[in-house]
Amino acid sequence: MFDPRQHLIVALDVSSAAAAKEIVAALGDCASTFKVGLQLYTAAGPQIVRDLVGTGHKVFLDLKYHDIPNTVAAAVREAAQLGVGMLTVHGAAGGKVLRAAVEAARKVNPDLLVLAVTVLTSMDDRDLEKVGVRGRVLDQVLRLGALALSDGCDGLVTSARETAELRSELGGDFVIVNPGVRPVGSDHGDQARVVTPAEAIAAGASYIVVGRPITAAPDPAAAAKTILEQMSLAVGV
User: What's the maximum distance between 2 C-alpha atoms anywhere in the chain?
Assistant: First the structure.
């Protein structure tokens, strides 16, 4: 039975541990996995991760590590010791970095999912060209995705617009996380490649990440339930 709550990650993109905990409390059992990204981690540090893990929640640590192999491996070890369930490394960092991250994670927690970021959901084809990457976003996603999986990563982070093609070209036995997901009728914000929750699940996403449409809503739990309903529609539940 498909339980949409197990496939929803709520992004805690807020400026304090208190604000993050308020959102978690407001959501109750609507979500069990929460993203700690650059904003919250910079504001509150690793203690917010410890607090979330300590209260039985799963943490997706989205810091997009991108540095030399030794530095990334050391950071991954620290993250693994915090008890996170998923973390991100930039696919563009290259095979040596990806392998170092995977090896470091396995030594501490074999179940920790190491995910490679492909192309940020705020970018389109023109943005890629400006930074020297020729071709479509899809081409770059497939290129980095194949590299990451061959180097041992457990999955990929990409827009749902590329998810179906990834499944078709690279197979189904890996995790795909879709950020940039917006419910029908919501503001796209700074996202360029946006899909709805139902579209993401139907395309083959393992998890979707939703932030502002839930966390900035007057009633976060009600907003989350609407998204969960949309996710269920994709699989006919």
Answer: 46
